[in-house]
Amino acid sequence: MEDAQKWIDKGIDFVVEFGPKIIGAILIYIIGSWIIKKLMKVLRKVMAKGSYDQSLQKFLVNLVSWALKIFLVIMVISTLGVETTSLAAVIAAAGLAIGLALQGSLGNFAGGVLIMIFKPYKIGDLIEAQDVLGVVKDIQIFTTKLTTPENKLAIVPNGAMANGNIINYTAEGKIRVDTVIGVGYDEDIKKTKDVLMEVLTSNPKVLSDPAPSVNVMELADSSVNFAVRPFCKPEDYWDVYFATYEGSKLALDKAGIEIPYPHSVEIHKAED
Description:
Elements: H1 2-49, H2 54-79, H3 84-101, H4 103-118, E1 126-129, E2 132-139, E3 143-147, E4 153-157, H5 158-163, E5 166-168, E6 175-176, E7 179-183, H6 189-201, E8 213-219, E9 224-229, E10 231-232, H7 237-254
Antiparallel strand pairs: 1-2, 1-5, 2-3, 3-4, 6-10, 7-9, 8-9
């Protein structure tokens, strides 16, 4: 009975000493989380009214959100009775250890900052980087998310993005679509060029400036190949690409111009 009473007394002393601190820490965490959500909502509205770049908005919101959450955790720990001076020393030591272990992540963070400063691309741009082609869906603190033409989500580290080659197909507002159409050697070159040019100029998604072009590209083994090159807006690239091939086939057939293809030859052995 004495041992039981001793444990009960210790439990009461613990509740009396640490109970208010624990309750206070819980309240600080709940209220702090609510305040952070409200602040993030206000920050988004302010940045939206200020016409900030969408990529910069998301990046700064993520950065400020993480900073406030870390500050909140420090406040909660401090409320529990941990001295802030010793806590700062522990955080500094842990930060050094984590920094050494996560050098790649820090590089990705630095890459994200560089992307925000120099803006090689923004959300909605069609880019090619790190052997990935896609539309920029989101730029986060450590990674950039791309949606590929196959509607796959590609997540590329910002460190690699900042230090590698980037081709931005959207930056200039216009993109050239390169297609190759081959016709037979017996066909009239001028007539073929006129037919192919009509295919391009009749497509409303093909831009008139820069003007589309049709030129003899190659005298191949079995065909005369034409470089058919329309310009369009980046978002219309695939529509123009497929329409050019389909429209060229239909127009050449209608004009009686042959598109050569391999013919199989049957050899019949003479019967004795």
